[in-house]
């Protein structure tokens, strides 16, 4: 009999799947919404308990899914890092749904709201499985679930541009999964395993003997590129602005904050548990990740500067922030990966906050989206204005906020790298570029426009939409607290991440 | 608003204020287009757009074929290096596959090793696959189910006319053959479904046959005839019950197995086969009817 807490990862996934299936029965969108919120809260609490148990006992464990021991049956593995990510994902998912609730029920037709929550619930199940998986093929199956659910979240708004964005997203995503699957097949044919621990041993032996060298490199490359496409790595990010910028607020928040991170977590698991950091450095994958990450940091910001549509600006900024994460992974050291994991948390709290605040600001401004029409909108909902400001300042990297800490640790991790100068200069340049588009956006929402212009905008505003939104206020307040928490008491969190990487 | 004749500082100040010209939202999915300037005639822009599109369409196939050829070359070179197919010394013929072949019957009670593997050893993956099917139908419903966004009066009119033609001019050959074949197809589907443990077949193939039978019946007798038997709520009920039964059964199996509790799970394979079959049949039939009619 194993300790009770070891069942928690499985129970969390199980709850998510069952709730997803149940949501299909519930026709009433509001009830499905409440079910989804309860589910995320339950999963957050259970994962937090798991995190506490694992961190205090300093262990990680393999949980066989069924009575067949590894390597014959499926298995999952949980350590402090996985538990931390699961907790964060569940919290962010719940808060994104809370914060975007109003526009969600406005954008999606009543008869299809139930189906929307099928997607969110199963998406959470998929993300949890991507975080916990200890089996390559389970990883692939849940990549598929995440892909379909994510595409449906974009599609839910059901307008012309949305459908085109969905098709683009679907094609790029399927290309990514296809490459991952080909890589996985090649790897399986030269090693004969799917479970990660025996696979890692087989890969280490192959790498040492130099056997099947070419298939090994190609399969590593295909998997990294496949996950990179799905995680919006720099040259493969072109689907992202349309998909994330056009979707309804909750979808944008979930897609930017969580879905990209699920794939990146799988990539981190592959790099640390299966291939090992040494091998990834040797075959040059690290350097590629580093280069593409650095390019993404610059070009994502440059693209964001040219946007006038506030949500597309935020979406382009995601490309830059994902660039930071890939850059951290590309350093190929444990410090780099720890900093990247911290940045995953920072971005998973800041970007959904920015999206729900932008969504709220546009709701109180008659659903206008361009920054020009949002001028002075912060005074119509001060909480949204404050939330947007805090999120943007954190993304720029102002001390006391989460973004500062992750940039600090990314820079520190870069000190040992042979490319120190390039990395540090790029971080500096990217910070300036971030400021160049976030500061104007903050100014725009806080500066009152001339009365005639404001009047034209206010004509489109319905009075019931400007009413105080309790749920949004709560979500924004929690997000702001989390950002300050990440910026001030970062030490224990980084400690959990470091221990977690040791125990991968 | 003309950009020309303004100082750089003024433009910068406007940009800071967020006052620059917003782009036309309809272009976001074609290509980023520069804002239309007032002083140039419309035709000039159309001409330029056309040229840009032409250039894009000229370059795109070249770039795409170059990328595809590169990928194909890499993959071919790789495939030449991997172990030859079906050799006994291959890395895939290790203790895992040996274990599956030798112990499947003893450990899972399934004579068919493939069924034992997908439903018992690696059942969690199969649960994931069933969820994929479930999600796929849900997404298609979300997209195609008739609502005020995707249906106009013309489409409804066309559908009504097609139904009327169907009713007055039934296809007799199709109807007679469907009448003759449907019972056998359903019987065969059930046979494949329930014999997955002992012979080739199982949930996925049996479900596909079952779905095919439903589609044949619906094509011959019109969707209305079938929707009287298989209403929306019954369809949803079957689909959800299928996946739910699978999830719950397998949940018990995982929980008991991982904690070392012995539970008699002889019935598990049959339940899961049936559940997978129902999910697959509903998926196939759902796709057909959603794409054809936009409703069940």
Question: Tags for this entry?
Answer:
A: mainly alpha, two-stranded antiparallel ribbon, 2 strands, B: mainly alpha, 2 domains, 11 helices
How would you describe what is shown here?
- The complex is a heterodimer of chains A (about 500) and B (about 300).
- Chain A has about 500 residues and is mainly α.
- Chain A is about 75% helix and about 0% strand.
- Chain A contains 21 helices and 2 strands.
- Chain A has helices at about 10-25, 30-55, 80-100, 100-105, 115-130, 135-155, 160-190, 195-210, 215-230, 240-245, 250-275, 275-280, 285-305, 310-330, 335-365, 380-395, 400-415, 420-445, 450-460, 470-490, 490-500; strands at about 60-65, 75-80.
- The longest helix of chain A has about 30 residues, at about 160-190.
- By secondary structure, chain B is mainly alpha-helical.
- Chain B has 2 domains: about 40-80; about 120-295, no CATH class.
- The radius of gyration of chain B is 29 Å and the shape is extended.
- The model of chain B is unreliable at about 25-35 (pLDDT under 50).
- Classes of the chains: A mainly alpha (about 500), B mainly alpha (about 300).
- The interface between A and B is large, with 85 and 71 residues.
In short:
The complex is a heterodimer of chains A (504) and B (296). Helix content of chain A is 77%, strand content 2%.
The overall average pLDDT of chain B, rounded, is 82
Structure classification of chain B: mainly alpha
Name the largest protein-protein interface in this structure. A-B, 85 and 71 residues
Proportion of residues in β-strands of chain B: under 5%
Mean pLDDT of chain A: 91
Backbone CA Rg of chain A: 22 Å
Looking at the structure, what is the overall shape of chain B?
extended
Stretches of chain A where pLDDT is under 50 for at least 5 consecutive residues are none
Output the radius of gyration of chain B. Answer: 29 Å
Largest sheet of chain B: none
Helix content of chain A: over 70%
| DSSP summary: helix tally of chain A | 21
Integer count of domains of chain B: 2
Give the terminus-to-terminus CA distance of chain B. Answer: 52 Å
Q: Got a strand count of chain B?
A: 0
Strand order of the largest sheet of chain A: 1-2
